[in-house]
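Homework-ish question, so no full write-ups if that breaks the rules, but can someone show me the predicted structure for this set?
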Amino acid sequence: MKQNDSPRGDTLAWINGSDAPEKHILNLGFMPLTDSASLIVAATQGFSQPYGLTLNLRRQQSWSALRDGLLNGELDAAQGLYGLAYSIQLGLGSAPTPMAVLMGLNQNGQSINLSQAMLESGVNSSQALIAQAKHKSRKLCLAHTFPTGTHAMWLYYWLAAHGIHPLKDVDTRVVPPSLMVEHLRAGRIDGFCAGEPWGAHAIQSGMGFTLATSQSVWPDHPEKVLCATQRFVEQYPNTARALIMSILDASRFIEESEDNRCSTAQLISGADYVNAPLTSLQPRMLGNYVDGCDHDWHDAHPLRFHGNGEVNMPYLSDGLWFMTQFRRWGLLREDPDYFAVAKQVQQVDLYKQAANALGISLPTSMLRSSTLMDGKIWDGTNPTAYAHSFDLHAIADPRATRQAN
Amino acid sequence: MLRILLINDTVKKVGKLKQALLEAGFEVIDESGLTIDLPARVQSAKPDVILIDSDSPGRDVMEQVCLFSRDLPHPIALFTDEQDPGIMRQAIQSGVSAYIVEGVESSRLKAILDVAMVRFESDQKLRAELHAREQQLSERKRVEKAKGLLMKMKSCDESEAHTLMRRQAMSRQQKLVQVAEQIIAMHEMLGE
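A: Not a homework solution, just the prediction itself:
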C-alpha cells in the first residue's frame, strides 16, 4: 500500500518538467474482455490524471476494427494481441507498419471451449476430440478471434500437441470474442478459443464446456499487450511513458487485495465495458474454474495483470515466440530477422523508465524460459531452430525444413 | 468539393465574391445579411466553411461569430475592407480562422480556404487539449478534497482513503470523480 504513494511526490515533475506528456488526451481501444481490466480501471479510477493524461476508452467490435483504428489514427493506443502487433509489423494481412509493444497487460486466462452438442455426442475430453477429429466424416469447425492472433496460436499449439493438424484436420473461422456464444447457439461452430468471460459465459448459457485453458498450453503465457504504432511512440515519447505508468499503477492496484479484484470485476462487467454478467466474469478472474462437465478447481496459473511486474515486462522472448509460430504455420514464408524485429517492436527502454519511476522491479534478462504443454522448452535463444523443430507444421519451404532436420 | 455558406453583409461587392468562388469550383450556398439564424442555417446547409463578406464587421457580426464558434464550431473566413488591427484581433479571438483584407482573385481562394480549415482544426485541437487539462486539474482537486474529508471521517491514512473511494466507485460501475462528488455533497449536507 505504502509503495503506491511513493511516486506521488515525483508526479508533478512528470507533468511540468521536460518529461511532460506531449499529448494529453488519448483514445484507447479495448475489446470487451476480462483482459481489459487494467485499461478500464486506469481510465475510470483516476490513475492517469497524476501523469497529465485523460484516457478515453473506445470499445471495439472486433480485432480487425481495432487494428484499423490504430492504423488510421482514431486510436492512439490500444489493447492488442501479440499476434496483431506483429502481423501489422510484418505486413501479414495489412500493409506493413512499424509497431510498438509498450507493455504486457496480462498473462493466462483464455480457454478452448466446445459446444454442448459435442459434449452430448460424447466428446468430453481431449482423447475423444482427437478421435472425432481423425474421423474424417465431418471436419470440426473451430473459431478463434484473429488470423494471426494469440487465440489462433493457442488453439493451433494445443491441437498440434495432440497430433491434430490445425490447418488440415479441422476448419477454422474468425469470430469476435463476444459473439462466440451466439455462434455456438446457432450451431455455426463446434468450439472456440477466446478470452474470458466468453468461455465461462458459454457454460453459464448452457451452450458449451471448457476443454482446456490457455495456461495449460503455456503456464504464464504472454497474452494481451498495450500497443501503438511506432510513429506514435516517436512523436509522443513522454505520453507513451506516462501511459505505461498509469496502467502499471492500475495493474498493481487490481492485485493489491482480493477486495480490489472483486470490485474490479464489478466495474468491468458494466454495460459500457465488458457487458457480461458478473457471475460469468468474476470466478475465473479470481482463478476459480468450473469446466461445465463436473470439474472444478482453483487454477495454479490464473489470469494476472501485474505479478510484481513479471506480467508487464515486454520480454523479447515473448515477442519472438509469436514470430516462431507465424513461421511454423506458414504465415511467414521465410525466417525473419527475429531479434531485430523483436527489438524494434518491444519498447523495453520506455518500459524500464516507467517501471523504475514506480519502483517496480525489473528482470535482469530480456528473455524468459518456459516449458510448454508438449514438454518443449522455449527460452528465446534460438528462434529459427525452435520454429523449425515441430513435427506438425506448415513450413512451405522444403529447404528450410530439411535444414532443421 | 467544399460546400461554402456565403454570408453577404456588404452592398458594393454583391455577386463578386460569389462569382469568384463559383469560378474556383466551390459549391456556394448564398445568404445575404447577418439577420439570419446562423446556427439553424448551418445545421440545415452543413457547409464545410462559412464565409462572411463584410465591408466593416461591426459588433453584431462579431457577436454572432463568437456565440456561434462556441456552440457549433466551424471554420470561418472573413473577407473585409476593414484594416483596423483592433477589429482584426477581435475577429480572430471570436473564432475567425482567416481574416482576408480586400478583394481576392479566384485563383487564390482555394489556398486561403484550405489554410482556414487547417487553422480551424488545429485551434479546435488546442481548445480540446486545454479543456481536458482544466478538467484533469479540477477532477484531481475534487478527488483530493474528497479524500481529505474521508480521511477525517474514517480516521484513516491517504492511501486507505483513496482505495476505499476507488472500491466504492468500481463496485457501482462509476468513475472515481463521481464518488468524490458524492462524498463532498454528503459532507456539505451533514456539515462539520
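Now go work out the reasoning yourself. Hint: Chain B has two domains: 3-104, 133-190.
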